[in-house]
Amino acid sequence: MPARSCRERHTHQKDRSVLRLLFLLLPVLSTVAYCWGSTVRGKGALWEASRIPEAEQESPGNSQAWLAQKMRELKETEAQVSAARGNILQAVREVLGVHGVQEEKREEILQLTEAAMKKVLENSLQMPGWALEATGASIDEERTSKSYGGQGKTTWWLSPFSFSSANPPESILQPRIAPGNCWAFQGSRGHVVIRLPEQIWPTAFTIWHISEAVSPSGEVSSAPKDFAVSGVDEAAAETLLGTFTYEVHKEIAQTFHVQKELPRTFRYIKFQVQSNWGNPEYTCVYRVQVYGKAASHNAHPQAQELL
């Protein structure tokens, strides 16, 4: 009986080690998915730019030489991501072997890991994000609220121990999420208009904010609460895509799906905050992600039941 108990305890310890290993793999899988998704989005943006006639290529960023160089860089990234997938599986195999996991169970874990990686990448492809500065998204400053503190000024809003310069609204188009690395506007009501790399059928949006656990002040009253998202065109009225609520006591990244039937595609998306969680001075937006299907694919996402 003691020997059996010892074996069971040893097996339980192995299982816990395996679970720890899989938990440690989650950030790696997320990184692989981000790189792969960025590659796919970059290809789409470059393909669209390559269709511009040479006579209309006014900026160096639209030149054929620049496009060719960027496409080579994306191919290199794609190759690196593919290699990373193989390296991850090999690393998992080796660690399982070191921990004495039986061959049959080892193969099962490898299959599950590979299936998880495939699922993460598939989700990234099904919901490509377009609000990323690195792939061509930008801020329509003329239709965006003024940054809190004004251009070039310093504000005492990050923490009582340090100053932080007012971040520009382009901060919400960056993948890095860290305390203070956000765009702030004065009061509890404000808006930002994002220019996407191309026309899309929008399907969903993800809003990010930090948690109380990592906030320098220990609270997140500056987080957006109620907000609306609209598709906006220069020559047409705004089209409301939905009204939502960001819950500060839930996960830091919350995804909201389009609530309305889409009448057309959009290149400009307006994110309008209508209230925050109690801060009377300013509201902070860390990141806004916009998902959808490229209009160039000639496919209505709601008809394809993507949501």
Keywords:
disordered C terminus, 7-stranded antiparallel beta sheet, single chain, two-stranded antiparallel ribbon
**What is the global morphology?**
globular
Tally the beta strands: 11
Major sheet, described briefly?
7 strands, antiparallel
Q: DSSP strand (E) fraction?
A: 25-35%
Count of DSSP H/I helices:
3
How far apart are the first and last residues' alpha carbons, in Å? 54 Å
- As residue ranges, the low-confidence spans are 44-62, 150-164, 303-307
Instruction: Assign a percent range to the helix content.
Output: 25-40%
Question: Strand-and-helix sequence, N→C?
Answer: HHHEEEEEEEEEEE
Radius of gyration: 23 Å
pLDDT averaged residue by residue: 76
Q: Looking at the chains present, what oligomeric state does this protein adopt?
A: single chain
Structural commentary:
By secondary structure, the protein is of the alpha+beta class. It has helices at 2-50, 64-98, 103-126, and strands spanning 138-139, 154-159, 162-165, 183-186, 190-208, 226-233, 236-245, 253-257, 266-273, 282-285, 287-294. Strands 1, 5, 6, 7, 8, 9 and 11 form a seven-stranded antiparallel sheet that branches. Strands 2-3 form a two-stranded antiparallel ribbon. A two-stranded antiparallel sheet has the order 4-10.
